[in-house]
Design goal:
Length: 310
């Protein structure tokens, strides 16, 4: 241990090579989103934090054809954006989302092309898989995503937030797995992710079989959301504060943590331990560790440590 400590002191005694651009005011410059969307509004709210807003308030943020495509494009962009380290997703207007836009989306499923039943079924399956990616892209994105829900979160809205890393809501929020009321089984993530979030198969079954509303207190006590706020303004402030705290940490550490949490959810403990060992055989060689150890020895906060983009 003495040799290890001496080695660390030797490493920490060397001046850290911090690129000049990270030490300049440009490091705090907010990045403008690279593209505009019809159903989403993307804005840089804090340093390294993006706010993605479902933006069809006149339609209660119902999810039309463009939405399902744009969510994939948006979060693929965010996943590749080295300036972004955390994301808050919310809804514009009076509610978070009313779910699928039935008026616009009905023809997508009722008029499937194909010369016979088998070919129609094949094409329909392909379409369902495409829509599943709309929310799977949230957990594939290595940047942590915080869902900030106010008012109603219906149907596909539950699919959406189930793929997020952190979920907050207002005290007037409510959630509804609505699909049985329109004659189908939820097929874009709720039935697969919700049981692993809530932890009670009985409760998930009840919600999915009956389509009853789950109000904010029950959502909190069951673990669907981790915090409840008085109103939308305090909700967004709280979500952005947490996103800012995440963004102030090493992106190598935070994004590696998300990747391994998602992997561990779907794999046995022994396999997940092997995965993280392989992951860290390279990630432990980051200079971020040396910067943070030096900051700790100098009694400085991690928030003040500059990290390279990732």
């Amino acid at each position: 241990m003495a040799a290890v400590a001496a080695g660390l002191r030797g490493l920490l005694g060397r001046p850290l090579r911090v690129p000049a651009r990270l030490m300049s005011a440009e490091a705090a410059e907010r990045r403008s989103p690279g593209r505009s969307f019809e159903t989403l509004r993307v804005t840089p709210e804090r340093d390294h934090v993006l706010h993605v807003e479902l933006h069809r308030p006149e339609k209660r943020n119902a999810m039309n054809v463009a939405f399902w495509r744009e969510m994939v494009e948006c979060f693929q962009d965010i996943g590749q954006d080295p300036s972004c380290r955390a994301v808050v997703i919310s809804g514009a207007g009076k509610i978070f989302t009313a779910g699928i836009d039935l008026m616009e989306m009905g023809s997508e499923f009722m008029m499937v092309e194909g010369e016979d039943v088998a070919r129609k079924a094949w094409n329909l399956r392909r379409k369902i898989c495409e829509y599943q990616e709309t929310f799977s892209v949230l957990e594939k994105c290595p940047k942590p995503v915080i869902a900030a829900v106010h008012g109603a979160c219906i149907g596909a809205g539950v699919d959406l937030i189930s793929a997020c890393d952190i979920r907050y809501c207002t005290q007037d929020a409510w959630f509804q797995v609505k699909e049985v009321d329109i004659g189908l089984a939820a097929d874009v993530g709720t039935l697969q992710r919700l049981p692993k979030i809530v932890g009670s198969q009985s409760l998930v079954n009840e919600l999915a079989f009956t389509a009853r509303k789950m109000m904010a207190p029950e959502a909190h006590s069951s673990g669907l959301v981790s915090r409840v706020f008085p109103d939308k303004a305090t909700l967004l402030q709280g979500a952005l504060d947490v996103a800012t705290a995440i963004a102030a940490r090493s992106p190598v550490a935070v994004q590696g943590t998300k990747v391994n949490l998602v992997y561990s959810r779907d794999h046995p403990v022994s396999e997940s331990l092997r995965y993280v060992a392989t992951w860290n055989m390279s990630m432990l060689q980051t200079e971020d560790i040396l910067k943070l150890v030096q900051a700790a020895m100098e009694k400085k906060s991690p928030e003040g440590v500059p990290f390279a983009k990732l």
